[in-house]
Amino acid sequence: MKPIIVMAGTPVDTQMGMDCLSTQGLPGVFCPISEDPNQQTAFQISPTEEKIDTVVSLLCAAQREHGCEKAFIYCNSLSGALDFQFVARETGLKIVTPLDVYRLLAPKYHSLAVIAANAQGTAGIERTLLSANPDLTLRSTGLLPVVLGIEAGEDPDTLVKQNRLPELVNWYQALGAEALVLGCTHFPYFKEALLRQITLPVIDPAEEMLRLLNT
């Protein structure tokens, strides 16, 4: 089997994507964009042409070196920061992103809550969800400090408590949210710690992304 390019914002979430593939016995090629979350946020607000040139260059280099035919974009905010359908046409790769999952999910809900890494992430997710279901009610929050804590290896239970995540989720639920979207691929890091303190269902797109990768 040819390896699959794993592209994400930082080395930490790129490795999370590699680990996600390995659970299915799939080989990956490690391909981070930036060194840390702050650098990645700066990249995401850079001019569109620069972003596309950088991403296409990295993907094509992996294609040449490893013979890859597929790419697994394991980063929500990166997925929303540029047009990966255009990138797929430019590179000839089959590319799967979290946004592909959200397009499928949106028609099943009336009201959703979204937590993401930053405003770029929430904007991309909202744009995708609403294009698939214009009647959907959305509330969202960017949580870059949580991402920084994950990158620093902070304890999941401590992260959840210090950032008042149960209170945030309960507020969403009180306003009618039917589920919480983990709109950042870092966030499964604390998913189990959060689930112990909330009753709102949680949507983690990783499992469906793997299915799409194999279709």
Give a verbal description of the structure.
Helix 6 packs across helix 7 (119-132). The longest helix has 19 residues, at 48-66. The protein has a four-stranded parallel sheet with strand order 2-1-3-4, with helices on both faces. The two termini are 15 Å apart. The protein is α/β, with parallel strands linked by helices. 53% of the residues lie in helices and 16% in strands. The chain is globular. It has two domains: 4-98 and 208-213, Rossmann fold; 100-205, Rossmann fold (3-Layer(aba) Sandwich).
Give me a quick take on this structure.
The chain has 215 residues and is α/β, with parallel strands linked by helices.
CATH class of the largest domain: Alpha Beta
Question: What is the CATH topology assignment of the largest domain?
Answer: Rossmann fold
What distance lies between the first and last C-alpha atoms, to the nearest angstrom? 15 Å
Low-confidence stretches: none
